[in-house]
Amino acid sequence: MLPHKALYKTLCKIGDAVVYPILPAFAQPAWNHPAGPKTIFFWAPLIKWCLVIAGLADLARPPQKLSASQNAALTATGAVWTRYSFVIIPKNYSLASVNFFVMCCGLTQLGRIAHYRVLYPILPDFAKPIWDHPAGMKTIFFWAPLIKWGLVIAGLADLARPPEKLSPTQNAALAATGAIWTRYSFVIIPKNYSLASVNFFVMCSGVGQLCRIAHYR
Question: Is 183 exposed, middle or buried (0-12, 13-18, 19+ CB in 10 A)?
């Protein structure tokens, strides 16, 4: 028997004797899975997480130093291999997950490159400071308030509902939350005027519905 095969079998026996007995019941099938830790099908995807870690580290690099071709290749590879992982035998969910994140990293970097090379240069001068603002579109500070406008839209839609079907507790909570978060938006760093505006309208929506409920009752 070749040395590496002997080492592999020895490690598997040690794992079966030491690790397997202490595994919780739900994890034991994974240990003996055809793509489990005792096979190359487990370790090959594991080492590929290095690509994801490298991609995350490159988020700190300026976009002008990123390779568009390399990240396009990573995106395409990640996408195709995510699908590939579900049609091979044995199916390999670990391989699918790592390739999905490889694809996401590549797409993110391509977006940064496109912004640097295409979008940013054509922005009017007055819009560039907004784009680069600490709470601008390149940050979660922009997108979190944006999604919160769904509460305002829902509140406007509820204006068509009869007041007896409205929840006073829910609308009181929305009014209070909106009021406090409007103030909160001005004291956090960075200040977030988008967050302030959406919470102001959340407050107005809640107060408006409370008035309708009070008038009905």
Answer: exposed
The structural domains of the chain, with segments of one domain joined by +, span 33-122, 131-216
Residue pLDDT, tens place only, 179-201: 999 999 999 988 899 999 999 99
Sign of the torsion formed by the C-alpha atoms of 104, 106, 110 and 116? positive
pTM beyond 0.90: no
Contact 137, 123 (CB under 8 A): no
CA distance 160 to 171: 15
Q: Which residues contact 101 (CB under 8 A, 6 or more apart)?
A: 49, 52, 55, 78
Q: How far is CA 103 from CA 97, 115, 118, in A?
A: 10, 18, 21
- Residue 190: cis peptide before it, omega within 30 degrees of 0: yes
Count of residues in the chain: 217
